[in-house]
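Aim 2 progress update. The chain analyzed this quarter is reproduced below.
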Amino acid sequence: MSLGKKQNRLPRNDETIIGKWNGHRYRVLRLIGRGATGSVYLVERRGVHFALKISNESMNVSSEVNALRHFSHLNDASVGPELIDVDDWTGTGGPPVPFYVMEYIQGVPFLGYVQDKGSFWLGVLIVQLLADLEHLHRGGWVFGDLKPDNLIVTSHPPKARLLDVGGTTKIGRAVKEYTEFYDRGYWGCGLRKAEPTYDLFSIGMIMIHALYGRRFPKKEGEGLQQLTHQLASFPPLYQRVIKKALNGTYSSAADMKKELSSGLSEKVVRQAPKRARSHAATRRRPVHTSRQNKQVRKKKTKKKLWKTIVKETLWIGVILSALYVCILLLYR
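Predicted structure tokens:
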């Protein structure tokens, strides 16, 4: 009778994970998240916090590590967390388990930030994400499992960052990890093929989730029609951009970013005069009595007189200096 393969245990809080090859020591603080490709822990090493992902599937770890290494070579872009370390853990009670350590990005959950700041900030954050996705797509990858849980907003200045690269897939292959609500295959709007339009559909669904306030199930026999119906209550700019993202109209993240950022800029320009007028109307003008008015006029007259005296004195000084120089030159 076979006892089957022995299951590796997961690390416990306050346990130290020691890398077999590099020898780095990471103290486990708590579990951050658990998904199809492994578990992520908040760990500490020499007073610095990191995120450590451990998985029994070495192929998944290798794929994600390769993706993070590729991200680090993208010019002028901080797509995903920075890769810190790659190693194996032997203290599992079984065979060594691969893990990797990455930058721990602190911030506010994406949906919570939008709810607190308002719908305008949704557009600002999406523009930032589209800029990062454009770098990613040009490098030959799609993020795949785009959803609010994989997004965080850092501060000073506010910046939307991508987390958990477990669904990252080379362009042209089948998307290896997805979440139904944000997946175009689930809504019958396209294939689960890794291409830029797949990520852009997910961006559209993230915007719907943020504006609608929650996720909702798909109605039998409906798909794009149901999603289009949900757009009716959204601001016109967001309606237009989301609809194009769902239909696959945009050929690139840069195209979607251009239209969205242009619309947001126009909105700011339109609102600026209103804000200025509102501010001017609420500003209180100083009220002076007749006696105060006389004192103010007297002070202004004295100030003006002193300015005149100073100017004349300076001119006299300049003229005398010029005459002195002329006399010296004449008798030289």
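DSSP finds eight helices and eleven strands in the chain. Confidence is low (pLDDT under 50) at residues 1-5, 322-332. These observations will guide the mutagenesis experiments scheduled for the next reporting period.
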